[in-house]
Please model this.
Amino acid sequence: MEQQSVLRSRPPGSGLLSEAEILRRLGRRRTPGRRTALPVQGKAKTGDALRGDHELNPGLYDESARLRAAAVLVPIVLQGEEPQVLLTRRTEHLTDHAGQIAFPGGRVEPQDAGPREAALRETREEIGLAPKHIDIIGQLDIYVTRTGFEVTPLVALVRPPFDLKADPFEVAEIFEVPLAFFLNDSSREIHSRQWRGEERRFFVYPYEDYYIWGATAGMLNNLAEWLNETKT
Model:
């Protein structure tokens, strides 16, 4: 399936970043961000920042729980003058996160050498994007989810032309959002709802008919922090 038949058309944005500027800002030396006392399964190195749903909801997690390793690709498509962030909408029948907006990715399996290999494998399986089109340029802070995963978000530049083919079991839709939309602070909202008898707060990026929230919105907020140079 060709890219044009899968991706929804995109409105223009503002505040554009060049490829060189994206590379420069993501390439800066990171300093540790908010930490968590949660035990981490594996590959978080000393000094890595651990972000997650707990940032807006202190005490959300069972700190005795063991976390499972996962990885996602954060694809920035370099098409024309305006970079786009590629996202998916999960199918409604899935057991976990049905119908939600997500990055391509999933858990790190035993056959994967690490998060990078897992993200590339899952991306190919879910949306048919071959590794030859993907240039991984950086890593965001590890993100801990309330469902028990430590997610490694890998930022990549993707250059057309390329073909996409959604896995019909997992992916209902593939679409793009202008990167500039996420870099605009006014695009980010904080919503809340009741969960297990308590109020849970979370980041949201409402975009057209899409409700981007949860871990995906948290990682997009982290991407905006780096690209807006709000970290020192």
